[in-house]
């Protein structure tokens, strides 16, 4: 369960993304995360280095699907619906 605290909920989502994705990356410094919480909707935009794409997606997309499942469960626990978008660093 994500705890609710005085810090903005967008920061909670950023921390969760970093916790889930950063250990998978060769270039962890290239990870960029933007979280926007607007009422009950959450948009997460994550940029990773092209060389880390395979590690984040995993074989058959299983790793990214697991990450999405964890994020959706956390969002649901807070009463949010969540959209996750992934990009290669340096692209919009």
The gyration radius over C-alpha positions equals: 13 Å
Largest sheet: 3 strands, mixed
Beta fraction of the residues? Answer: 25-35%
- What's the total count of β strands? 3
* N-C termini distance: 31 Å
Mean pLDDT: 88
The class by helix and strand makeup works out as alpha+beta
What does this structure look like?
The chain is globular, with a radius of gyration of 13 Å. The protein has a domain of 58 residues. It has 92 residues and is α+β, with helices and mostly antiparallel strands. A hairpin with a 2-residue loop joins strand 1 and strand 2. The N terminus is likely disordered. Strands 1-2-3 form a 3-stranded mixed sheet, with helices on one face. The protein has 3 helices and 3 strands.
Briefly characterize the structure.
With 92 residues, this protein is of the alpha+beta class.
Present the secondary structure layout.
Elements: H1 9-21, E1 32-38, E2 41-48, H2 53-57, H3 62-77, E3 81-88
Parallel strand pairs: 2-3
Antiparallel strand pairs: 1-2
